[in-house]
């Protein structure tokens, strides 16, 4: 802490604020005292308990009504909504003369509104930076459907020229990628390009890497297009409009719209102060709003309509024209308390506080080494680690490497972090362009990953030796040095490998060292721990059976958690939902190729052949890997047995069949199972669960010492070690 404050003491903890960071945590975030380290503020920040007290008091002391009425309560609610619009504009330093604030259900809905109402023509162009959220990329569908062109671009900025627009030349260049076009027969004529409206979209801060974009892009695209797009097919296009996705960046450095007059800015309020969710806004320049083409009308957006003839008169005010239906007036009433909180701290102080934490973490990760000298961490988008540069927000994105240079899967990091009470985010964060750019994934690799079954939010974190996503930690205004320190300590203890020595003096490094074959055969090479028992659970949440030895395959233990029981509505059934599943006993005879299942609720024992050719994909498969029996009679027999066993309609599904593989290196010496292409069947966490006898004994002691009666005592476990 002393070293941290020596470097960041002028920025950390709100030294000039009404409360310092410790007072904020002690009075407004007491729920975090339970050991939770929350590091996903880029996904959603946390609401203050004091903020919620103010909201609850407001809601219980006042009466709010539908603003589409003339009653006193409705009029008061309308005034409250108007005041909330003013607060949003004020936060972005936007004049009501120039901008209107439209409330939406979130930033995504605001982006959708721009996409569906923008005046696209076949001569229009939609340019967007590679580092954009999927919700921005979705606008591309509207553009392409109307015959417009779309193109991803990279921003190249000259060093040491912040804010410089023109002198010796522009400091920012836009480099285009492949042009996308569905109307391949269209020919853009020079004279028609000047009449079409074009849209350029970029985030104020990349939600993948935390990279902050130079807001000079706004003026460059609107005033100096031909120069900044020089050499591209879009350099002759005129009438550019600019959209800023401020959902991530506005929590710390909101764009100043008086200086950077973007046409559209979108945001979600839960990113700012945690509550309310389901509410966002579109800030639109009033002159740009006049160009948008809205088709649908609804209650609240019309001045008059006639039901049986084609007649409608729309309202003229921008907010009334675009906001369909009744406003979410209770959520809107709540945001003023959030803005009160931000105003007391100030966005600039929040930025300095949060960014000091992210730079501290980046420097620690960057310096981290394994015992053999290899780097532990690869950071993305963190070239400049000076707080004064304003180049990066309070986000740290990275992947971890083993001592041998192979990757730790981000899922492993996330699972271990959760066990340590640390909540972070993994994957691509709905930003496929930034993900592919920083991870250096080619189009062929991305397509190959999809064909291999990889989709957003799945468990395929490493494919063909390359990560498919990353780990992200991000800080909020209530984050502390202790949060950052606990995270760094977790990374060091879980993933950084010190040098080690085996019994014969061989020095190895890493959590998974590659030992010579003679060391693998020597008992002196390892500590005095040994595998005592193995339990295989063929059917998820049903009882398993113990064995002395068992084959390994790419999914772990052969046939382990290879089957699962599914309800008729598609939900996975487990003991948490159906305790009767614990009464189902299983056993596999590998020589006979049979899975035997029995239950006290069923008279007959069930036998299922486990040969792989008895299972084939069908249209009603659970997912891309879950198969059911091809033989309808066999399927009916099995499903009826399980229905009787658990007392509810269900069916048995099987993961793709396992294939046993020896854990040998190319030279036929014993190796590590991680060298194989690995998957998990229906396991929650990973291929293996390792439990020590001492841990089970400790749990039993706690149960016995508990003041609550406990009817059971743990005596069996999947794996066990005899010490520690």
UniProtKB/TrEMBL annotation:
Annotated EC: 2.8.1.9
Keyword vocabulary terms for this entry: Molybdenum cofactor biosynthesis, Pyridoxal phosphate, Transferase
Residues modified as N6-(pyridoxal phosphate)lysine: 271
Essential cofactor(s): pyridoxal 5'-phosphate
Record has Oxidoreductase as a keyword: no
Residue ranges constituting the MOSC domain according to the UniProt record: 650-724
GO molecular function: lyase activity; molybdenum cofactor sulfurtransferase activity; molybdenum ion binding; pyridoxal phosphate binding
BP terms from Gene Ontology: Mo-molybdopterin cofactor biosynthetic process
Matching InterPro entries: Aminotrans_V_dom (IPR000192), MoCF_Sase_C (IPR005302), MoCo_sulfurase (IPR028886), MOCOS_middle (IPR005303), PyrdxlP-dep_Trfase (IPR015424), PyrdxlP-dep_Trfase_major (IPR015421), PyrdxlP-dep_Trfase_small (IPR015422)
Protein's recorded name: Molybdenum cofactor sulfurase
Gene name, Swiss-Prot/TrEMBL: ABA3
